[in-house]
Amino acid sequence: MNGFLANAILYILAAIICVPVAKKLGMGSVLGYLIAGILIGPYLFGFITNEGQGQDIMHATEFGVVMMLFLIGLELEPRNLWKMRRLVLQIGLSQVLVTAALVFGIGLLLDVQWQISLAIGLSMALSSTAIVLQSLKEKNQMNSPNGKLSFGVLLMQDIAVIPVLALLPLLIAGDPVPAANATEMHGLIDSLPGWAQTLSIFGAIGIVVLLGQFGFGPLLNWVAKSRLRELFTAAALLIVVGISFLMELVGLSPALGAFLAGVILANSPYKHALESDLEPFKGLLLGLFFMAVGSTINFSLISNNASTVISLTLGIIVLKTVILLIIGKSKNLKVTSNLTFAIGLSQVGEFSFVTYAFALQLGIFDQAISDTLMAVTALSMTITPVLLVLLDKVINPAITKTHKISEKEMDSIDERNKVILVGFGHFGSTLGRFLRANGVEATILDADPDRVDYLRKMGFKVYFGDGTRSELLHSAGARDASIIISAIDNTEYSIKLVELCKEEFPHLEVMIRAKNRYDAFELMEMGVKNIYRENLDTSIRMGEDVLKKLGFRAHTVHRLAIQFRDYDERSLKVLVNYKDNKDEFISKSRQQIEIQESLLSGELMRKFSVNDHTWDSDSIKEAEKTDKKS
Amino acid sequence: MRKILVLFAHPKFEHSKVNHALIQAITGLENIEIRDLYELYPDFNISIQAEQEALFEAEVVIWHHPIYWYSCPPLMKQWIDLVLEFGWAYGPGGIYLKGKHVVNAITTGGSQEAYQHAGLNKYSIEDFLRPFEQTARLCRMIYLSPFHVAGTHKITTSELLQKAESYKEFLVGLRDVADLSIYQNRNDLSL
């Protein structure tokens, strides 16, 4: 199998087959990509002939990680990042140092040369940003306690890559290989003296911050004015690639630089546009990256040294899990979230591939060690997602069951809300607040990530996402809910939602906000019974107040208003039958208005004679008069 | 000078000539507060707090309403149901109305004669007002004889002006007269 197109077809096909299957089985996309990679790799179907090819792809697609961190930065405002500083420093640093020290110690105990042990320890301390963040995002756990801890640890690890790469050359005393030739991670400035290197590093970060504050905004603005969508995408790519280049030039982690730029742009009005433009690139690159990891797993090496590789892999997973469990415990994580946190971060990460390669070039590792470590790393990256699936499906539910009495039951209750509220703008938020004020917690879905973020901070259980996607509704508990509300001001969207519910959740009571009469017609034709025209009640209420200010009696106006609304709703039900016949529609609609007018004027003229005889003495007076006459 | 609170309940006040005249006659008098319940609570959502505060201030309370089907309009009943709370108006600790005077000021389409044993309605107006009387007693209030405007269907303008004037005098009396026992157990309700 050669040639670009053939390869492209191969990768895409494998992904298309494996990822949906993995997701159906509840395993998340990461594991799906990894399995796809293993399948097409040299040891199973052999579409990819050697793991070197896989590694090439891996290096190329590592850029997906950079993009992911840029996107994550976009969702994190500088203020919030500053709030995380203690988390990153305490939790992250202790994880990196303790793990590295323990691996180093074990290495020494096993009589491994100390330089090798230290290099291994430092590499193994890192976890996979790509795998962990991708799974957290998929499970909507970025803002959960374990999600925040995980993110803090990963951020520290990304920072730690820099000193680790700086430290490795020092391990070979006396005969340092010129770093500039050793790896692409080190750039132009290595020939400079130490102080100049430090200066240029700070200079580069300064450039990123300055560009982020003052450069990117005008650039994007200028490009956006051209109204060419692809040009905007290109500009977005330019920002990310440019920063990566700059960071590599001074020997910093590109992911870190991109993250920084993202954070600075988090307040920019182009935030959402950047996100939606880069999202597919990130997704594809990451997918390819995971597949490449899968394809590099050297099964022949594993089978030849089965005991070594497997015991090393399990050993490092167990070691990292234990350390992370202790850290999680110290931060008061619940048992279930702590397990998710610890096992989630227990693999060895993609940056380790870089450090292995660097150590190999420096001569610290020989080829055999490097190969084994590569296999261990790739294997650990495959095993942890499997463990997480087990954890989510089997272990955590069991723990929650046994701990039911001792632990708060909050989680299980609010996960199974009877009401799903789609859209939390002005309309939805009022509705949601009213429900909440009466003790009804709705599961809220909103497609605006900003709003979702904000509302989560306010303590609302809001999920980001498009309410017309059936998976999202599934995860929001549509199966167990009894009512779904669409509070979106887009009727096309509501119609999609209605169709989806008809198909997949016929048991749900559907309640829809409609913009106007005509949208209401459409919804009525689809058989929706509960339709709420957004202007009806407000305008009538306003009319009520106008009449009161003109001197009408409040109670009378109140009754008139209720009756007016009823007439209006009723007339709508009549009109819907004539909607398609235009001529008839117009005349009918005129007729309805006439009915409404006559009913209402009748109300006032005849003093509620329609239904208020009790309060009306005129007819009694009339009767008494005729009595006398006769 | 006592404080008088008139609780007025008429669902269709704009069409009641009689009650317009009555209310007009007592509007703007010192120490006489009129609370127009149907205007305050068009949706029947009575503010218990506001009503109890008004009651607390008053020494004499007037339930002013037309008689419909031998009783008060629904909002007046709603007012009684909601505002006269257990533990506030009656029952243990329900001492806030104790010793206050209360009186019905009512209008009926039927004549004085209709509200007699031999008449169309068979019972006297006092008989029909028993629930109010007993309500007052349970709240340890002093129930005074009602002010009754009868035969509103046939009332002439001059009769109405006279009625309105006597309603005003009645309230001024309740406000100023030293001994209110003269208003108890009166026979001539039209004054």
Unreliable spans of chain A are 174-186, 405-415, 605-614
Q: Name the helicity range of chain B.
A: 25-40%
Shape of chain A: elongated
CATH architecture grouping of the largest domain in chain A: Up-down Bundle
> What best-fitting shape of chain B do the alpha-carbon axes yield?
globular
At the first level of CATH, the class of chain B is Alpha Beta
Order of strands across the widest beta sheet of chain A?
Answer: 3-2-1-4-5-6
Number of distinct helices of chain B: 7
The largest sheet of chain A is: 6 strands, parallel
Reading the helices and strands of chain B in chain order gives EHEHHEHEHHEEH
Report the mean per-residue pLDDT of chain B as an integer: 93
Per the CATH scheme, the topology name of chain B is: Rossmann fold
CATH fold name of the largest domain in chain A: Na+/H+ antiporter like fold
Could you tell me the mean pLDDT of chain A?
Answer: 78
Structural class of chain A: mainly alpha
* Sheet of most strands of chain B: 6 strands, parallel
Rg of chain B, alpha carbons: 16 Å
Radius of gyration of chain A (Å): 32 Å
TL;DR of this structure?
The complex is a heterodimer of chains A (630) and B (191). Helices cover 71% and strands 4% of the residues of chain A.
Explain how this protein is built.
Chain A has 630 residues and is mainly α. Chain A folds into two domains: 386 residues, Na+/H+ antiporter like fold; 122 residues, Rossmann fold, CATH 3.40.50.720. Chain A has 29 helices and six strands. Chain A has a six-stranded parallel β-sheet, sandwiched between helices. About 5% of the residues of chain A have low confidence. Chain B is an alpha/beta fold and 191 residues long. Chain B has a single domain, classed as Rossmann fold (3-Layer(aba) Sandwich). In chain B, strands 1, 2, 3, 4, 5 and 6 form a six-stranded parallel β-sheet that branches. In chain B, helix 1 links the parallel strand 1 and strand 2. In chain B, helix 1 runs parallel beside helix 7. The radius of gyration of chain B is 16 Å and the shape is globular.
